[in-house]
Structures are given as structure tokens and as C-alpha cells.
Amino acid sequence: KGFAIGSAVLTALSLLSAFKNKINDPTGYDVGDPVVLSGVLTGAMLPYLFAALTMISVGKAAAEIISEVRWQFKHIRNAKGISLGECIRVYTEKAEEFGEGVYRAAPEDEVEPDSDKCVAISTRSSVREMIAPGAYAVLAPLMGGFLVGPRFLMGLLAGAITSGCMLAIMMANAGGAWDNSKKLCEKLGLKKSKDPAKKEQQKACVVGDTVGDPFKDTSGPALNILIKLMSMVSLTVAPLLKDHKDYDHWEYGLIPTAIFVVLTLILGPMMNILTWDDPLANMVSGDAPEDMGKGSSSRSYEPLGLPTTGNRRNTVCKVIGRLLGGGGGVHQNLVTP
């Protein structure tokens, strides 16, 4: 991942240098200039926006697959009426008793899961959720270059490359650390430990890995593509921006800006791509959303038996506290009754 990040940054810097030579602005790119500085600040914000969008996408896809799996555990049965969840429970108990791969159920006791639906959910989500990041990566240089000018775009690219590089390195290292901590817990056998503290430590590491995996495998590598794509788009439109001063023909920038606004309205309120619905609330209450189960996800939820309303915040705080190495308690004044 370090080599991939370095390669992306060097490629983006080469494209940035080519873009600078192409527009050939005689006024220069003083970082103290308000236009250039505003571009740097805007560009430095973009990697965090894209990281947030990709993290949300992973969370939504995972929640949808969990809903489908929970439904299959309860409702998929074989000819003898044995549910998928019961079959898996037997395999788990036998594996703990005899070891992995030793026990084999009779053919009539086997229950086959419908894994194709989970693959379909993941595939559909991977395409659907990348509409917004991909469109914004293309529209951001167009809006900055045509609405303000090439100097603003130069600052935007410099800020995005610098911020994206640091954020990608942080995500790769932090995600790898979370992932390795979970693997260490598995190696030490903390899940089967008789010490309750070690069991809680293992659970906290698993919770941390749910953040670490999208950190190192989704959001981090996506930033490499972001900075290269923005630099490539800028270099492509550089001939159109050549010899332009600040705010020259700013009306041309209204076209990508209008596309951005319309696309955001469609992807947000209408398609629910830019928004986040808490899946935990639905699972706790036992109510499935109306759009869940239409050809992919669960038809009904089984309540998790977790505390509801205000107590749920206390539960989340305890998990985060254990993850960070503390006792997991929260101050009473911070929890709403």
C-alpha cells in the first residue's frame, strides 16, 4: 500500500507539473494569494469528503448483507425443517469440540445458504455507491477551473495531493494496525479465554477491525485514484483554461456547478446514496425498512435484544471505551435519560 500511495503521488505531481506548463500563467502561484490559498484549502478538504463517502458506502453495504444473512439464518430450512442458523450452530459447537473440519453432518441435515443474494448485494452496492465519489472527482476540477480560474485549480490540486497523500498513509497504517490486533487476538485464543477481560478485549478488537478494514482496503486506496483522476481531468481541460485570468468566463463554470447541484439532490433525498440510515435502530426495534428486501435484503428483522433509545448510546460508548483501552464507562451527565 505504501508503494501504491507513492506511485499515485508521483503520478499526480507529474500531471500537476504538466498542467502548470500548459496553462502558462505569468502571474505565478503565490500561496499567500487569496485565490491560490482558497484553492489549497478546498483541495485539502476533498480527500476527507471522499473518505467519508466511501466509509459510509461500506457501512451501508455491510448492514444490508447482515440483514440478509440474519433472515437466511432464520427462514432457510431443509426438508427436515432444520434452519440454516441451527445447522451453523451445530457446526460451530462441533468445531470447538473436535477442531475445524473434523465434523461433517449427514447430507439430509445440511442446509445450503443462498450466497448469490449476498454477492448481488455487494456487487450492486459497489456500483451504486461509487456514482457520487466518481462524479464529484470529475466535477470538482471543472467547477474550480471554470468558475474561478486556473490558479484556483492549481491550488486545489496541490491541496488535494498533499492532504490525500497524508490521509492515505494514515488510513493504511491505522487500518493495518486494527486488522493485526484482531489477528493477534485470534492467535492468542482470547475468544475462548476464561478471563472475562480478555474476552472483552477480543470483542473490542473485532469492533476495531470493522473500521480498520474499510480504512485500509476501501477509503485509503480510493484516495490514490482520487488525486490521479483530478489531476488527469485538470490536464485534459488545460487547453481550455490557457491564458485565462481569474473569473474570466466564469459563466462556463455554472454548467458543472448546476450538474453538481442536480446530482447531489438526486443522490441525496431521492436515491438515499449520500445519506445514512441507522441499521441498528431497525434491528433493535424489530422493524425492517420499507425498501429492505426488495429482491435483495431481509424480509423481516429479528430484534437483537439490545437496550433501546437512550441506553443505546451508553452501549455504544462502552464499546468505544473498550476499543480505546478504557473501562468502557461513560459519565452519567453525558447520557440522556
Overview of this structure, please?
Helix 5 packs antiparallel against helix 6 and helix 5 runs antiparallel to helix 8. The chain is an all-alpha fold. The radius of gyration is 25 Å and the shape is elongated. The protein has ten helices and no strands.
Short description:
The protein has helices at 2-23, 34-75, 84-98, 115-128, 131-147, 150-188, 196-241, 254-270, 279-285, 310-323.
Please count the helical segments.
10
Element-by-element helix/strand order: HHHHHHHHHH
Alpha-beta content class = mainly alpha
Shape by Cα distribution: elongated
Strand content: under 5%
Uncertain stretches of 5 or more adjacent residues: 289-310, 319-337
Please report the distance between the alpha carbons of the first and last residues.
Answer: 45 Å
Number of DSSP strand runs: 0
Q: Give the helix level as a range of percent.
A: 55-70%
Q: Radius of gyration over alpha carbons?
A: 25 Å
User: Mean pLDDT score, rounded?
Assistant: 83
